[in-house]
Specification:
It is built from twelve helices and eight strands. The chain is α/β, with parallel strands linked by helices and about 230 residues long. A four-stranded parallel β-sheet has the order 2-1-3-4, sandwiched between helices. Strands 6-5-7-8 form a four-stranded parallel β-sheet, with helices on both faces. Strand 3, helix 5 (about 75-85) and strand 4 (about 95) form a beta-alpha-beta unit. It is globular.
Length: about 230
């Protein structure tokens, strides 16, 4: 299977370890991953800010970049959702990581080891755009050493929403405060999600409050093994 990594803008500029973890994990599972260097933004930020024509142009360009690949894997449910929602049949065969592992490869266990107490935040795009279901939770439940604790009010938005957090800062902050309270109630060491954007928002709040709780992308947890712990 010819597979490409779609690293996303946020991954490229702020969270490269998420993309690196995807490659490390898939290669461990015997999947060869290519990285087309011509890839750029999927256009989501432009589209959501009212620049629909410009956003769709970027999405269509990205689709052309990934032409010929049997699967495109990304550590971002929101970017995968942008391509699939807006391009429809024109979209490349793009999959958020957990979708690819569970639905394409048929895997529920990937040989990971991560000895920490972890709670999972299901991001809005993974829930409502991609409908990934319980795939991420099944993968986390199979990780050796990991104690998975349920997040109260898990389905509530963290308040990021891309430019929403900028345009509606007060509302965004109030939503974040509720999410942080839920996270702290779990007494987890780590908050996990499939979108670095939400982890950035939650991680900022946790850091400013000096809680000691870390945010870690699902890919980084699944890439970690007892023989080779993931230490970005």
């Amino acid at each position: 299977m010819r597979v490409a990594l779609f690293v996303t803008c946020l991954g490229d500029t702020l969270f490269p370890t998420a993309g690196q973890a995807v490659v490390r994990l898939l290669e461990r599972l015997g999947v060869e991953v290519e990285f087309p260097e011509e890839q750029t933004c999927c256009g989501q930020m432009h589209f959501n800010s009212g620049y629909a024509d410009e956003g769709l142009a970027l999405a269509r360009r990205l689709s052309a970049v990934f032409e010929g690949y049997e699967a495109v894997v990304t550590p971002s449910a929101s970017c995968a959702g942008m391509l699939r929602d807006q391009l429809g049949a024109e979209a490349p065969p793009v999959h958020e990581l957990s979708e690819f592992l569970v639905d394409v490869l048929g895997m529920g266990e990937v040989g990971a080891y991560y000895p920490h107490r972890v709670t999972y935040h299901p991001t809005c795009h993974s829930l409502r755009a991609l409908r990934v279901g319980d795939g991420p939770l099944r993968l986390l439940s199979s990780v050796r050493g990991l104690e998975l604790v349920e997040l109260p009010d898990a389905l509530e938005c963290c308040g990021f929403g891309g430019t929403f957090a900028v345009k509606n800062a007060d509302v965004s902050t109030a939503m974040l405060t509720d999410k942080l309270r839920s996270v702290l109630d779990t007494r987890a060491e780590v908050v996990c999600a499939v979108d670095s954007s939400c982890l950035m928002h939650i991680g900022g709040g946790l850091g400013r409050a000096r809680t000691g709780v870390r945010t870690v992308h699902l890919a980084e947890i699944l890439a970690s093994t007892e023989e080779a712990p993931w230490r970005p």
